[in-house]
Each structure stands twice: as C-alpha cells, then as structure tokens.
C-alpha cells in the first residue's frame, strides 16, 4: 500500500470514529483539509496548556503550511500522491490530532484521558485500565549518558529484573558489539540504565535500574536475506536483546508483562493476526530518524517521554513478504520516526498480551515488529527459568 493511499484511508476513516479494522467496509468521504488543519491547531493549543509552555511560533506555521500542502496532495492524487519525509511528518501530526492514530502521553502509568485526540480509542483503552497500567509501568527508556538525546530506545520487563529491547539498541549502548549463535560480544557503556518513569512532567524518579549484563541476543540474518532496499533490515534475523538489571535496595522491579507464546495450547500461536487492534508503549524519537519528530520541533527540549499509540495490525505472522521464519508482523500505529524496542500489545480480549517487539519502519507508515509467538524458543533460551504455559 502506498503512502498516499494509507493516509487517504486513515484521514477519511477518522471522520466516522471508533476502532478501524483493515477490512472496514463502506466508501469513506475524502479528507477535509480545512477541518483537519483546524483540529491540528486546536491540538497544539491543548498541548501548550497541558505542558505550560508555548510551541515555537515559526515551527508551528511551518507545520501548518506543510500539512496543508500534503493534505492537498492526498486529496488531489490519492494513492499517487508524491510525499517526501517532511510531508509525511506533517501528515503524521494531522493523524495524531484528528484521533485516527493519536500519540498519547503516559501520565501516572495511564494515558492522558483529557486529550480530545483519544476520543476514538478512550473507551477501549479505559476498559483495560488495570492491564494497561501494568504494561505502562513495565516499559522503560534505555538511558545512555553519552547519547545526543540521552537515550537510545525502549525496553520492557519480561521477567523479574529482565528486560527485552532491540539488538540494534544494545549495539548503541555498547562498545565493539558483536553476536554469534545467541552470544553477545562487547562491553556495555558506563552508566547505561533503564528508566521506567520518564513521563511528561518528570514522572517517578525511583524507577531507574542500571543494566548489569546481556543474557542473550537474537540471531543475525543470513546476508543473502538482507532487504534489497532498506539498510540493516533482514527478516531472517531477530533484532532482539535480553538484558539483566541491577537490583537496588528498597526498590521493586516492575511486574513483567505477559507475552503471547507460540507454544500456548489455548491460542496455537495465532493471536497476532491481521486487523487486530493493538497499542504500543515506548519512547518515540531518534536522532537518526528519516522522519522529523514534529513534537520535538514544536516543543524543543520536551522529548524522550513515555507515550502510547494505538493502531491495527496490517499484516499478521506469515503474511509479511520475505519473512520465511514467520516472526514478523506489521502495524500502523504512529511511531514518530523512531520507537525502537517499543512493546506491541493486544488491545482486544484482556488487553494485556504482548504480541510483538517493534524494531523498524519506513516513512510510508510501514512499521515492523517481531511477532513474539514466532520467537518463543529464542526467548526461552535467553531467559533463565522462563516456563512453558
């Protein structure tokens, strides 16, 4: 699906509200640029009030101009719209502000219920409040004191004092990293830690744990399976690292999340299916991103805070091209140009089963995650005492 057709679908479908599935019927009306730009301005105004600071006026005007241009391109040309990275960044901001795929601040381990952009998803998210709070508490920012932004990605608790993140995040917080047959070679940088607070406004300060060692890493993909056009993408590999945290006297590790397993006799490894509603929790933003972070441009210095983004699985396990191992899924939740390591959680049923580990995307709203039902054996071999269901 092209970027133009994807945005046309999201921006048109948002006018009807509610959860959107990939097979939704009916013919949506075309996007209304005037209405959408007004909603974008209203959302920026709400953020100014919420954060207690004003958006950069010049950045806001640039955003509105780019958004109007990109919207006209989608309206006039649909699937054939020609969209550059900044066009798509502005459309991302519109999608966030109209409620199609909002980006919601996590506050007090829950989503910002005052955000008008949450309206289409509020009922579904509120229904799983207890489970959602457990997931939000279990997600942390991978701090790196030497990094440009001060952090490198997201990790989340999968066992007591054990977290999962991407291998490429581990590479960024290590010196001389390498991997062979699930074993890691290299040394962790000084001071790297996981901060399970890091919410907008500061959040709890007593949830920081240093990373002590690497328990295991996913396999590297065979070179002949490298993606033909996207650097460092290889669906034959597993972009995963399992890390152990140092205990801190008087502090408890977060409660681990529940992971959907391929050996669960109740689900037979088939939860991560096309059209299933999901939500991601993580720390969007990346200095190396190919898509500008509009929020960071508007509110310089306010970044690296925990956010929640709902969406839909656009491809289930076994449906992604060139995924011979059946451990890749795709989703259309907003990732703001970099959410490496974010947790992908089932929004349906009980709303607490982790379906995937986000690892990559391209600027036309194709976002990939490892479907963890397909990586059960690899996780079990890296996590001491990880039991069968």
From TrEMBL:
Annotated region described as Disordered, given as residue ranges: 1-35
Gene3D superfamilies attached to this UniProt entry: Trypsin-like serine proteases
Family matches, as Pfam families: Trypsin_2
Listed name of the protein: Trypsin-like peptidase domain-containing protein
Organism annotation: Streptomyces exfoliatus (Streptomyces hydrogenans)
């Amino acid at each position: 699906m092209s970027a133009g057709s994807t945005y046309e679908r999201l921006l048109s479908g948002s006018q009807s509200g509610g959860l959107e599935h990939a097979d939704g019927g009916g013919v949506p009306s075309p996007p209304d640029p005037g209405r959408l730009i007004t909603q974008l301005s209203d959302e920026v105004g709400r953020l100014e009030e919420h954060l207690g600071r004003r958006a950069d006026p010049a950045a806001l005007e640039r955003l509105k101009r780019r958004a109007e241009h990109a919207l006209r391109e989608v309206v006039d040309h649909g699937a054939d719209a020609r969209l550059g990275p900044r066009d798509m960044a502005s459309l991302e901001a519109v999608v966030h502000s109209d409620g199609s795929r909002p980006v919601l601040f996590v506050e007090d381990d829950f989503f910002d219920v005052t955000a008008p952009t949450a309206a289409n998803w509020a009922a579904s998210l509120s229904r799983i409040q207890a489970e959602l709070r457990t997931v939000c508490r279990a997600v942390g920012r991978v701090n790196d004191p030497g990094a440009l932004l001060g952090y490198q990605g997201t990790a989340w608790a999968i066992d007591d004092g054990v977290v999962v993140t991407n291998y490429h995040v581990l590479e960024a917080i290590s010196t001389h990293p390498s991997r062979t047959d699930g074993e890691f070679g290299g040394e962790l940088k000084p001071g790297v830690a996981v901060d399970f607070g890091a919410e907008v406004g500061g959040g709890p300060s007593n949830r920081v744990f240093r990373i002590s060692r690497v328990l295991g890493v996913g396999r590297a993909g065979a070179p002949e399976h490298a993606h033909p056009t996207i650097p460092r993408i290889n669906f034959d590999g597993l972009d995963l690292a399992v890390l152990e945290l140092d205990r801190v006297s008087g502090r408890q590790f977060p409660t681990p999340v529940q992971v959907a397993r391929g050996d669960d006799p109740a689900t037979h490894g088939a939860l991560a299916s096309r059209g299933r509603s999901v939500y991601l929790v993580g720390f969007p933003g990346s200095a190396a991103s190919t898509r500008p972070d509009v929020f960071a441009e508007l509110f310089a210095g306010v970044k690296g805070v925990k956010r929640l983004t709902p969406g839909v699985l656009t491809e289930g396990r076994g449906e992604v091209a060139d995924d011979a191992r059946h451990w890749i899924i795709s989703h259309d939740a907003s990732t703001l140009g970099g959410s490496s390591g974010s947790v992908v959680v089932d929004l349906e049923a009980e709303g607490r089963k982790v379906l995937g580990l986000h690892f990559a995307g391209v600027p036309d709203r194709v976002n990939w995650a490892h479907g963890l039902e397909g990586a059960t054996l690899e996780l079990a071999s890296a996590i001491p005492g990880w039991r069968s269901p």
